[in-house]
Amino acid sequence: MLGGSSGERLCTPSTSAGPFRIFSVAGFQNRANDIVYCPPIVRQQSQHVEDSKAIIYFGGDVQDFPESMETNRDSRGYMKYNLENSAILLREAFPRSHIIVIRPVRMEFKTFSCFDNFVRGNNAGVPDHTPMNHALQHLEKLLQNLSQRLISIPENEILDQAAQAAAAAAAVAAAAAAAALTLSNAAVNSESTSASSTAGDNSQEMDIDILQVQENVTVDADGAVIFPIVSAGATETAAPINNVAGNVNNGNNKDAAVNSHQESNNQQQQQSTVKATSTSTTTATTNNVEHCNNSTNNSNDCAASQPTLPTQPQQLRPPTSQQSDNNPLWWRENLNLDKSKLVLIGFSKGCVVLNQFIYEFHYLKTLTPDDSSMCRLLSRITDMYWLDGGHGGQKNTWITSRSLLETLTRMGMNIHVHLTPYQVQDDRRPWIRKEEKLFTEMLRRLNAPITRHLHYDNQPANLMTHFEVLQAFCQHVHSLNQQQQLQQQHGPNNEQPNVATNNGAGSSSSNLLDASEEAK
Q1: Tens digit of each residue's pLDDT (9 = 90 or more) over 279-297
Q2: Residue 492 and residue 84: Cα distance in Å, rounded?
Q3: pLDDT in tens, 46-58
Q4: What is the Cα–Cα distance from 42 to 461, expressed in whole angstroms?
Q5: CA distances (Å), 36 to each of 24, 179, 372, 514, in order?
């Protein structure tokens, strides 16, 4: 089996460019986590491992593998934010980076994300922060062992089994697309005969998502590969980034992609198996998320679409695109994720892991300054993102200790806060608003490089906008990427030092801070 010994399925690929599921990656001591991994889809010019970047994501409650979410009534409505789709969404925002989604060690009642390997907590995942829980050591070991696992998987197994999974899933996806088109037409007819409210339209769209998810069953190819298909969720996830309308239920586009794929395979029939991974990009050009998670495009589509991302201008095509075509697994070259620059992202409950990191920053930098074992890892953390942090406890949603925040400031990493009214304007949980305000204002007074953004502030607070902060955050990163591209086009004289990097991971310029967004 892929990535493991006989009788043991340790890695399940969705396509040749991911996302991949790597099960039971060993970490610190006896700890282990499942990981969803997506390789970069744009090759950097520099091949030095120190110049590579890894995005580490810790998700929130409900977020899990799609088949697990589908069996839970409460989770099913948020299927499009499953861990694999979240990885693809992040890859669109950070196309030059390795995407690493760390699955919680347990999902209590299939709902509550519990990151016990990083921070101690109760059955609902409410954290009990301690000065040292070896969370950073666990992260470093995970990155080291993940690199070894990815390198050790034979290339032919990745390509062959990914192709089998995509081929087996094509018929299911086509049926799902037809069903989606029928449902979409029915929705349009219903809108023309009734004056539905905006909220009603959103509810109807979610119903369509659920029906599509039920159609996209898990595919078993020769009893070896289980490939979850969540085409509708992935497509809708990409919409804010690619600014493409009407691609969710476009059956013609899907048929064109299949025909183009067959045509390309005929032309390349005499080439090697590795070279054959470059095929049609008809659908990929239209919707860059769909090309890596929609079964109408097989594993070859991801490799072919690398040079032509909708979110990237033509001049950003890497000079090594020919090499990328010849070797679809170029991302495994010199793979040492623990030596990459690190961007840490926590969403909702996942922010408790970032908070635990702050405790351990302080312990390592202040209480044990002679311990240099973690210096290399700490020096590689460039950015930390808090995306609408929250948990079921009534305190410690945000770090408010001045000494801890002083240590965080001295480390010099960029700090980003993205919020929605669901967390900071909930009168039933006023401590979240107060703690976030203390966190943000104290870091600003300490002159930390922090940005803060409140999304959907003109909409009622609800759980859906809470999840949609993921899309808003990625759209924000994409906008920063475009700003940098414009600056590069106008020459170095117009370049600003604080603008985001090519991956959108740097801090935004100071004028993006809006005092009017302060929590009330």
Answers
A1: 333 333 333 333 333 333 3
A2: 38
A3: 777 778 999 999 9
A4: 37
A5: 11, 29, 30, 35
Residues 503 and 244: their CA atoms lie apart, in Å, by 21
* Residue 222, Cβ density class (10 Å: 0-12 exposed, 13-18 middle, ≥19 buried): exposed
Parallel/antiparallel/unpaired status of strands 225-227 and 219-221:
antiparallel
- Closest C-alpha among 380, 354, 378 to residue 364: 378
| Cα 121 to Cα 125, 129, 422, distances in angstroms | 5, 8, 23
Determine the Cα–Cα distance for residues 455 and 419; give it in Å rounded to an integer: 6
Please state, in angstroms and rounded to a whole number, the distance separating the CA atoms of residues 70 and 121. Answer: 26
Tokens matching residue 486: 């414009």
pTM over 0.70: no
pLDDT for residue 29 is more than 50: yes
Cα–Cα distance list, 402 to 356, 358, 412, 442 (Å): 15, 12, 16, 7
According to the model, what pLDDT value does residue 311 have? 37
Q: What is the amino acid identity at position 432?
A: I
